[in-house]
Design a protein that fits this description.
196 residues; 2 domains; alpha+beta; first zn-finger domain of poly(adp-ribose) polymerase-1; 6 strands; three-stranded antiparallel β-sheet
């Protein structure tokens, strides 16, 4: 219905408000890492249009996963938040880094290549069996889609930074400190003493 505020009478688009709130039940899984978000833990909820029905839907993330994989909406929400938040500066720094280096939010951990069939998205060469590789994901239509791999040694060229280990640690929690050290050596271009 037409009004002074809405002369055309069309439904006004109400902006979606993302949220940071405690998890109410502990049942929701993080969209970034796939792990459950513990009851009471602060979580980030990204509101998106529901493609299957009317209204909105909320994708839940651990705060650090949101900083690493959904930096723009998290920074927007942090900018609107007045309540204190533990490690706010760290979350903002991780998110800003993801905006400065546009490919960083694609990092989805690290692993040894099980075969020599995958090709690196940076150098286009095959990733040898047992070589370190960084899996990539792209955010498309409200979900993360697997999108290939890069050699650990190609991280600088692909991500335009070598500061990927905190993201790798978050999305590959099973890696030991020794493995992370090996990986860091390859990412930073230092010889680990072993063939890759």
């Amino acid at each position: 219905m037409p009004s002074e505020e809405n002369p055309g009478g069309a439904e006004a688009e109400i902006p979606r408000a993302h949220v940071i709130e405690p998890a109410s039940s502990g049942r929701a899984k993080c969209r970034g890492c796939g792990e459950r978000i513990e009851k009471g833990a602060l979580r980030f909820g990204e509101k998106l249009e529901n493609p299957f029905a009317e209204g909105d839907m909320t994708h839940w993330f651990h705060l650090d996963c949101a900083a690493f994989k959904r930096p723009e909406p998290l920074l927007q929400t942090l900018g609107e938040r007045t309540e204190p938040l533990e490690d706010r500066a760290g979350l903002e720094a991780g998110a800003r880094q993801g905006l400065e280096h546009r490919r960083l939010p694609r990092v989805n951990g690290a692993e040894r290549s099980p075969s020599g069939r995958a090709k690196c998205r940076s150098c286009r060469e095959a990733i040898a069996s047992d070589a370190w590789r960084i899996p990539l994901v792209f955010w498309e239509e409200g979900r993360f889609a697997p999108s290939g791999f890069v050699h650990a040694r190609c991280a600088r060229a692909y991500f335009e930074t070598t500061d990927v280990i905190s993201r790798v640690r978050r999305f590959s929690p099973g890696l030991s400190e020794e493995e992370l050290g090996e990986l860091r050596g390859e990412v930073e271009g230092q010889d680990s003493g072993e063939p890759s």
